[in-house]
Specification:
96 residues, mainly alpha, 3 helices, elongated, membrane, 60S ribosomal protein L18a-like protein
Length: 96
């Protein structure tokens, strides 16, 4: 069962010469493993400015560094849009 270049009890390397992206995303995401986008989305309900921060990261193509961030950043951008529309309607109703 020995493959020749591996000795018994040693781990195989995760990188591959044919597929260089294989080991690229082995490290956990920042912010307790959920990523900046989802972290901003969840904390945005307490402080909505975090949604706008994540929106700037989304439109700044931050997710090109790690594609796993894309969904959370997009969710935060949508939440920022909904919050902005709700705030504008609320202010319009109060003022008018």
């Amino acid at each position: 069962m020995d493959t020749g270049d591996q000795r018994k009890g040693e781990y195989a390397p995760r990188s591959d010469s044919e597929n260089p992206l294989l080991g690229k995303f082995d490290k956990p995401l920042p912010c307790f493993g959920c990523g900046i986008g989802w972290f901003s989305f969840l904390l945005g309900f307490v402080c909505p400015l975090l949604w706008y921060y994540a929106t700037i990261l989304y439109f700044g193509n931050y997710y090109h560094k790690d594609p796993r961030e894309r969904a959370g950043l997009a969710a935060s951008a949508i939440a920022a849009l909904v919050f902005t529309i709700a705030a504008v309607i609320t202010v319009a109703v109060i003022v008018l």
